[in-house]
Amino acid sequence: MNILQRQIIIGASLAFFVFLFALATFFAAFPLSDWSLLWEREIIDVPFIIFISGISVFIGIVFGVISGFFWRKQLHVVEEMLRKIEQGQQAERNEPLRLKELELISARIGKIQKYLAEQTKLSQRLASEKAEEQERRIQEIVSEERHRLARELHDSVSQQLFAASMLISAINEAQTCSDDVQAKQLKLVEEMIHQSQLEMRALLLHLRPVALKGKSLQEGIEELLRELQQKIPLNIQWKIEHFSLDKGIEDHLFRILQESVSNTLRHAKATSLEVLLVKRGSLIILRVVDDGVGFDVEKTKTGSYGLQNMHERAVEIGGTLHIVSVPNQGTRLEVRIPLLSSEGGGKK
C-alpha cells in the first residue's frame, strides 16, 4: 500500500469516526424523541443519516487525497536525493521541502553526501599513492619475470605448436587415401593445434601486458587493443574519449580492462569485442562488451579471483563494477567512477 492509498483510508476513517462522535455528543445533549426521524427525513432523496455520513466520508477522502499527494511529493524529493547519492551524483533538491522534519532529514543527507565525497576523495588519493608506490617497488620485478616466461613459451611451446601446425597441414594436403575416418581425425588434430595456438597467443598477451609507463590511459588502451587486433582473430571496436585522470585511477582502470580482455580471450570464445571509455558529467564509464558464451555471474563471482580483483580495484577508487552475462549471448562489464570537482585537471 502506497502513501496515497494509506492517507485516503486514514482520512476517510478519521472523518467517519469524528462524525459519529459529534453526532453521538449532539444527541446526548439534545436527545431525539423519535430516532426514526433520522431515516425518514431525506436530503436529495437520501436519508438524512446516510447523506451526512457520506458527506463526512467524502470530505475525509478529499483530505486524504490532498495530504497523500503532498506527502508523496515531499518524500519523492528525499528519495530523489538518495538515488542521486547512490549513483554517485550531487544530491540537489529540485523542489523545496515544506516540513521541518524533512528539512532535517535533507540536512542529514547533505552531511552524509559530504562525508562520502570526502571518503571517495581520500580513497582515490590513497589509491594514487599506493599505485605509484607499488609500481616503483614491484612492477620492474614482476614485468621482468613475466617477460622471461613469455619469451620461453614463445621460443619453445609456441614454436613447436607452429611447427606441428605446418606439419599436419602438409600431411592433410598430401593425403591421397580415401579413408574418411583418418581424414576426419587429421582434420580434428589440425583444429586442435590451431586452437592451442590461439590459447598460447592469449596467454602470451596475458603474461606480457602493455604497461602505461608514462602514457595516458587512453594511449595504453589503444595500444593494447591494436596489439590484440594484430595477433588475435577477433573483431575489436573501441570508442575512447580523451580527458585527464589521476595516476591511481588510470592504473586501476587499465588493470581492470586488461583482466576483462584476458577473461574474454581465454573463456568467452567471442568473435567481437567492444570497449568504451567516456566521461559523462561527473562519472567516468569504462565498458567492455563481448558476444561470447557468457556465464552465471552469481555462481562464478565467489570463486573467481579475476572478478574479485576487478571489483576490489573499482572499490579502491570509489567506484562500482557491474557485470551482466547471459549464457550464449555474451557479457557486459561496466565500471563507473565518480570524478570529484577537484580532480580531472591533470595527472598528479
Tell me about this structure.
The protein has 348 residues and is of the alpha+beta class. The protein folds into two domains: 3-98; 119-338, Histidine kinase-like ATPase, C-terminal domain (Heat Shock Protein 90). Helices cover 65% and strands 12% of the residues. The protein has helices at residues 3-29, 37-40, 48-86, 100-174, 180-207, 217-231, 247-268, 297-301, 305-316; strands at residues 42-43, 46-47, 235-240, 272-280, 283-290, 320-326, 330-338. Strands 3-4-5-7-6 form a five-stranded mixed sheet. The chain has a two-stranded antiparallel sheet with strand order 1-2. A hairpin with a 2-residue loop joins strand 4 (272-280) and strand 5 (283-290). The model is unreliable at 343-348 (pLDDT under 50).
Q: What's the CATH C level of the largest domain? A: Alpha Beta
How many β-strands, per DSSP? Answer: 7
Helix count from the secondary structure assignment:
9
Mean pLDDT: 78
Order of helices and strands: HHEEHHHHEHEEHHEE
Structural class: alpha+beta
Q: State the domain count.
A: 2
Kindly report the name of the CATH homologous superfamily of the largest domain: Histidine kinase-like ATPase, C-terminal domain
Task: Give a concise summary.
Helix content is 65%, strand content 12%. The protein is of the alpha+beta class and 348 residues long. Helix 3 packs across helix 4 (100-174), helix 5 (180-207) packs antiparallel against helix 7 and helix 6 (217-231) packs parallel to helix 7.
